[in-house]
Specification:
By secondary structure, the protein is mainly α. The protein has 8 helices and 6 strands, in the order βαβββββααααααα.
C-alpha cells in the first residue's frame, strides 16, 4: 500500500536542529557571530539556523511535500531521547547509535553550505560534459542532427554547420552561468546519506565533555568537522591515521 504524501509541514525549517542548538544556550538564547557583518548578537534558538522551505520539495503534480523535513525530525527526536544515555555512558542501545550516526551524516549533508557545494559540483559536471559534447563543430553537428531527427525537423547540412559553429564558439567563450535547481542539489545530497553512514558505522565513537564547568563549546552553520586521513589539505570521509 502506497504511503500517503506528506502535504503539510512547517514553513520555517532548521538546518541546525533546535535540539542540537539547545546544547549551546545560555540564559535562554545563543550568541551568534555573523561572518558577513562581523557583529555578535544574541537570539533565540527558534530564530537561529533556519531557512524557509529548505527541505520542502515539489512532486510531479506541483504539490509541496514535507517527507524530508519529517524524516529529519524523526532522527532528531530519536537522538534527543538517546542523549541522556550517551551522557551517562550507560544504557544506550544499538538503535541509539544508529540515530547518532544518521544525525551526523545528515548534519554534513543538509546545510546550505553543503547544498551550495552540491550545486558547484553538478554545475562543473554539466559544464565539462558540454565542453566534451561540443568539442568540435563536427561533433556538435552530429548532436544537433540527432536532436532534430528525433523532433521530426529537417535541417540542411549548411544550417546544422552554422548552428554548430555558433554553439562551439559560445561554449568555448565560457560567457555563461549554469544554474542548478536547489531541489536537485538537495536530492543529490540526500543520495549520499547512505555512503556517509556506511563510512561511519564501523568507527569508534567518542563523546567528549569538558572537565571545567565554565568551558563552552562553539558550533557553526556547517557543524561537522572532517579530519583528513592523508594530507592536511585533503578533506573527506575515511579512516584517520593513527
Amino acid at each position: 500500500m502506497d504511503r500517503e504524501p506528506k502535504l503539510q509541514g512547517p514553513k520555517r525549517q532548521h538546518y541546525l536542529p533546535r535540539m542540537y542548538l539547545n546544547g549551546f544556550t545560555t540564559g535562554g538564547g545563543v550568541a551568534v557571530f555573523d561572518r558577513q557583518t562581523g557583529e555578535m548578537r544574541r537570539q533565540t534558538v527558534g530564530n537561529t539556523g533556519l531557512e524557509t522551505h529548505i527541505y520542502t520539495f515539489e512532486d510531479d503534480q506541483g504539490r509541496r511535500r514535507y517527507e524530508i523535513e519529517e524524516l529529519l525530525s524523526q532522527v532528531e527526536s530519536g537522538l534527543a531521547d538517546a542523549i541522556p544515555r550517551f551522557e551517562s555512558a550507560k544504557g544506550y542501545t544499538a538503535t541509539d547509535i544508529e540515530y547518532l550516526i544518521s544525525f551526523i551524516a545528515f548534519a554534513e549533508l543538509r546545510t546550505p553550505g553543503a547544498m551550495a557545494d552540491a550545486k558547484l559540483v553538478k554545475a562543473g559536471f554539466v559544464d565539462s560534459v558540454a565542453k566534451v559534447a561540443v568539442g568540435s563543430v563536427d561533433r556538435a553537428m552530429k548532436i544537433l542532427g540527432a536532436m532534430y531527427r528525433d523532433k521530426g525537423v529537417h535541417r540542411t547540412k549548411e544550417e546544422l554547420k552554422a548552428e554548430a559553429e555558433g554553439i562551439v564558439q559560445f561554449v568555448r567563450g565560457g560567457q555563461y552561468d549554469i544554474e542548478v535547481d536547489p531541489q536537485a542539489a538537495l536530492m543529490d545530497n540526500l543520495r549520499l546519506w547512505k555512503a556517509v553512514v556506511d563510512s561511519l558505522v564501523d568507527r569508534d565513537l567518542q563523546i567528549i565533555r569538558p572537565t571545567d564547568p565554565q568551558s563552552r563549546y562553539v558550533t557553526c552553520d556547517s557543524p561537522v568537522v572532517l579530519e583528513s586521513r592523508f594530507r592536511k589539505d585533503t578533506v573527506g570521509f575515511g579512516r584517520t591515521r593513527r
